[in-house]
Amino acid sequence: MTYATTAPALALDDLHASLTDPVLDAMNFLNEVVARFPDALSFAPGRPAEGAFEVEDLARHLRSYTGHLERSLGWSRDRVRTHLFQYGRTNGIIHELIARTLANDEGIHVPPESVVVTTGCQEAMLLTLRALFARPEDTLLVSSPCYVGITGAARLLDIATHPVPEGAGGPDPEAFRTAARRLRAAGRRPRALYVVPDFANPSGTSMDLAARELLLRVAAEEDLLVLEDDPYGFFVRAGSARPTLKALDRERRVLHLGSFAKTALPGARVGYVVADQEVVGRDGRRSLLADELSKIKSMTTVNTSAVGQAVIGGMLVECGCRLREANAGAIAHYAGNLATLLGELERNFPEERRRRLGLSWNEPTGGYFLVVDVPFAADHAALEESARTFGVLWTPMSDFYTDGGGEHRLRLSCSALTADQIVEGVRRLARFVESRAAGPAGSR
Amino acid sequence: MTYATTAPALALDDLHASLTDPVLDAMNFLNEVVARFPDALSFAPGRPAEGAFEVEDLARHLRSYTGHLERSLGWSRDRVRTHLFQYGRTNGIIHELIARTLANDEGIHVPPESVVVTTGCQEAMLLTLRALFARPEDTLLVSSPCYVGITGAARLLDIATHPVPEGAGGPDPEAFRTAARRLRAAGRRPRALYVVPDFANPSGTSMDLAARELLLRVAAEEDLLVLEDDPYGFFVRAGSARPTLKALDRERRVLHLGSFAKTALPGARVGYVVADQEVVGRDGRRSLLADELSKIKSMTTVNTSAVGQAVIGGMLVECGCRLREANAGAIAHYAGNLATLLGELERNFPEERRRRLGLSWNEPTGGYFLVVDVPFAADHAALEESARTFGVLWTPMSDFYTDGGGEHRLRLSCSALTADQIVEGVRRLARFVESRAAGPAGSR
C-alpha cells in the first residue's frame, strides 16, 4: 500500500502504551507467521477442531433456538422476531440455557441472572477486570506462564499484573499466598488471582483436587477473588474430570469465565462470566456483580450478537443443555491427539537421545497443549527458521512470561491436526531440534 | 433473590468509579423504566423500526453470504466452512463489502484494510479511544449534549472528556477551537473531538456543509483528530443528504464510526471504524491505524462474531452494496414519523398555547430525535410520573450533559412507533405537560 505524503502521521509512541507492549504483539506475530508459512505443519495456534460442522448447521441451530422460544416458552412469533432483531438484554438472552448447562455439566448451581453472556470469553475478562480494579495499587496475580488474553486485557486497562510461578502441579496456592503478602507489604492491593485449573494454556498443567481446595482457602485468607478460566476442562485424556473451582466455591469468591469456542462454535463468539457476588452500595443497596458488569458491557459492546447467541442457544437446546455429552466426539479427538503427540515425542526422542540433547517435555492429562524444554533459545528467530527450513510451527513460551522466562521452552498444540499430521510434524520437529542442538554453542 | 449471609459482599465504592458514574447509570435507568411500564407509549429508546424483518431471513442472508464466497470469490466449500467456524481475522471478514458499500453510499473511498469490523459501533468507540488516548492530560472534546456511548466508553478507560456546547446548527467548530486552545493553555492535550454531524443523538441537530468544512479546518489548525459517528445519516426528512466528514476529509483527520444497527440489523451487533491514518513507529516502520486497532481488538473481543458478520455480509451482497437504496422504505418510515411527530406537536400545542406554557421544540431535518424545551424539571421523577399517570415515556436530556444542563429539556424518539402511536403519544404528552405546568411553582 502507498500513502499520500501529505497526510499527517500519528506517532506510535503517542498512542496508548499497550500498542508497543510485547504481550499485545505476541498474538499478532504468531498469526502473521502462520499466514506466511501456510504449508508448514502447525503446532502453534490453539484452534478447535472443526469436527462435523457444516455451514448449513447454522440455520438448524437458529431454528432449534426459535423453536425452543415458541414451543417450550410459548412465545409469539412477533416476540421471537423482536428478540432476534432488536437491541436486547445487555447481559444476554441465553443466560438461562447457560445456567442450566453449567448445572448439568459442572454441578455449578447459580441463578441465571448471575450469568453475563459476552462476546467471547475475552470480553468477559475485560468486563471483570474493569469492574474489580479501581485503584492504581490494585494488582492482579496471574499464574505464570500465563494466557496472553488476560495480561493483554489488563494492559489495555493499565492494570498492574504480578506473575506467580506455577509448579508441576499447575498454579501454586502457597506461591499466591506469599506473593499476596509481599505485595501488600509493598503497599499494593492484591485484588484477584487468575488461573486456568484444567490443562492450562500455555503449559498444559492441571491442579489436583487438594490444590483446588487449598487455593480457595488461600483466597479466603488473603481476601482475593479468583478468576477461573476453564475453556479446556472437558478434554480429559487420562484420569477423570475434576470439579471446577466454582463448583467447590462456598463463599462466592470465584468468578467463573466460560467459553463456547472450544465446546461449540468459535465463530459465534459467545462466552460468559458467572458473577454471583453480592455488591453493596454506600446506601446499603444490594446488587449482583453481574448487574454491575452489565453497566460496563453497555459501554464495551452494548449486547452480545443475538444471532451468535441464538446459534449457541440452539446447540444447547439440541443437546438438552448437556454439552459435555455432546462433546464426546471432540473429547475423544483431543485425547487421541494428545496421546499421539506424546507417543510420537517418545518415539522420535527415546530416552538416550533426549538425554544427549538435553530435551524434556511434560505429560498433560488433557487439553490442547504441552511444553517442550529444549537446549536452545526457542525465540522468534528460531520459529522462523523452523517454519522456513523444516516446515513446522510451534509457539515460543517466552511470549507467555511477562517478566522474562521460558526462553528455552516451546509450546505444542495438537488440537486441530490429524494423527498423520502429528506424526509428520513431530518428525519435522525432531529434525529441527537436532539441527539446533548441533548448532553453534552461542545459539543456546 | 435471597443471598446466603456468609458470603462476603463487595463494596461498590471499591469497584471501578465508572460504576457509580451517572453516565453509565443513565442507560440502565432508562431500560428499567421502559421495562416497568410496558403499556406506556414510548418516545424513549432510539430503537430501529423492525420493518419487514422475519426470523427466516437470517438463513437467507447467511446463504447469500456463503454463495458470494463460493460463486463470486471461487472459494471451496471447505474454506467457507472454516471461515464461518473458526476464529478469524481480527479486523473482520466483511471489510471489503463494507468498503464497497461506503464507496457506493457515501463516496468514501478507503482501502478495505482500513476498515475494522467491530461488535457494534460501541466497540469501535472503545478501540478508537483506547488507541488514541495515551497520557493523563489527553482530553476528548465532545459536542454537548452528547451520546452517552462515547462519554461512557471514555469513563471506562479513565479518559477525560470536555463538553463543547452545540448550537442550533449542531456541533460548533469555533467553539471547538476555543475549547482546544483553552485546554492547551491549561496544560491539557486536546487529542480528538467527537461529533454526530447528521441528526444527532440526542438533539436531532445537523451540521450544514459550511460547518463541516470549517470543522475540518479547525481540526487541522488545532491538530485534532475527528471521531465522526453517523448512524442516522440516511434518514433525511427534509432537504437532501450531506456529505459525511470522512467524504470531505483530505488529510485523513477523520475516523469514521459506522453502525449497521439502524440500516440493517441491530441483533447482528456489527459496526465498524474506518481508520486509514498512518502510524509511524520509533524505528520508522509504518502501519495503518486500523492495524494498531487490531492489536487492541484482540484483547477486547478477539473477533466480531463470524455469524453476525455473515448475516450483515449477506444483506450487503443482496443489495449490491447499496445500502442506502435498500433503506428506501426505512427512510420513508422515519421521515414520515418525524413529520407526524412535528405535526402533532404543532396541533396539540398551537402557538398561543405553547407561548402560555413556555414550550418550544426544534425541527430536525431527519433522524430519530427531537428536543422539547419544557417549563418544568424534566428529571427522572417527572419521567416516572409521566409514565405512571399519563402512560407516556421520554428521555430526560440532562442525562446527556456531563457537566449539568438540559434540566428543562426532554428528548422524543419516534423511530419505532406507528403514526397512530405518535398521535396518541403526543396527546398523552400534552396532558402531562399541562399538568406539570399547572403544578406548584417549585416544580419548575
TrEMBL record, chains A, B:
What Pfam families has UniProt attached to this entry?
Aminotran_1_2 (PF00155)
Name a GO molecular-function annotation. Answer: transaminase activity
Classification via SUPFAM superfamilies: PLP-dependent transferases
Keyword Signal on this protein?
A: no
Q: Which InterPro entries match?
A: Aminotransferase_I/II_large, Class-I_PLP-dep_aminotransf, PyrdxlP-dep_Trfase, PyrdxlP-dep_Trfase_major, PyrdxlP-dep_Trfase_small
Q: Which UniProt keywords apply?
A: Aminotransferase, Pyridoxal phosphate, Transferase
| Coiled-coil region(s) | none
Its cofactor is: pyridoxal 5'-phosphate
GO process terms (BP) = alpha-amino acid metabolic process
Domain named Aminotransferase class I/classII large is located at: 94-429
| Protein name according to UniProt | GntR family transcriptional regulator
Its source organism is: Streptomyces parvulus
